[in-house]
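Researcher: Structure prediction, please.
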Amino acid sequence: MFLPKIVRVQQSFDATRVTDIPKTVAEQLGKLGLGNLLKPGQSVAITAGSRGVANIANITRALVDELRKLGVRPFIIPAMGSHGGGTADGQRSVLEHYGITESTMGVPVRATMETIQVGETVQGIPVFLDRFAAEADHVVVVNRIKPHTDFDGDIESGLCKMMTIGLGKHTGAIHYHRANIKYGYYTVITSVARVVRERCRILFGLGIVENAYDETATIEAMATPTMEADERRLLVVAKANLARIPFDEGDVLVVDEMGKNISGAGMDTNVIGRNISQRERVPVKPWFTRIFVRDLTEESYGNAVGIGLADIVSRRLVNKIDYAPTYINAITSTNVEAARVPVTFDSDREAIETAFSTCGTEAEACRMVWIKNTLKLDQFIATETLLPEIENKPHLKVLDRLGELPFDREGNLRQLL
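Model: Predicted structure follows.
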């Protein structure tokens, strides 16, 4: 099959970032007057999630150090719903991969799947809390604030979600995702988080916003009474920072890798223009007729939830799937379609030729974009058919004219990104 020639493109974003994490964390905590809220020797649980948050180990260690200066006893708890296979050891292992261990943090890491019901929402949804968090004198909620992959709102993925799905563990995640079917994600997340703030000893929140280069752009400490309003404000910034594919539509999207460390949905739906949940609004831009995903990240530990977003995948990806955690994640979220395995090919050439032949456009006119993953979009590959649009966008620059797609003897793409 004839395939269009390709070019390498540079995309420029705002590069604002935090240059001194310990100093920034110290300054932010200094605004809260914690000396008036804490007593020496009290225990403080710090949440740590399962997403690939930039600099999360450094941020967590800086937070631990500042709390210890105040004479309290911090410890870390995995707060990630059903991730890590829905087991305490699995969740501890996820944190270890991010560099969060007892030796690197200098404090205990206490992992359990046990929860305590602390109340219920106005809708009657039971609210659960990690047992170690419930037993602590205080809880600090830490999370990245970003657009959610399944719904739009002024509160999406951030501190409220951490207090809901994260601290609720597997038990809470099951109840909340089922409640989503009736009430919607936004209502469930915000109402559960309000109960947690009212009934539990939430000391403060630490919100993180990243720039489009996957770097830490903002770290902000939030007092519990203003946490929800502060999160709304930072979500506006996070949405403005989100790296996107700079075209409204295309024919074929090739993605080198998907994974849980990249997005809860494996691929950020805000980037690829598709949604896992069939109950929530589907993003309309960008629109690609065919999506081909080539691999699964090692950091996913076989959890390929979100594979159902693709139309075509490689055999190497499918061979890496661990169906137990994949199914646990998909069933817990009630989005079983997220675990559907698409049409599978042994070689990239077969997959790409199939994508081109079924996208509804003649191959020579096909508009293809090739990205590493949905977090890294500062460079991408595009077919020359997109050059007119590229040349009209000032934040885009052609770096190389690469010619033909580079297949090896086995018919697989050579790595370009």
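Model: The longest helix spans residues 159-183.
Researcher: Thanks, that helps.
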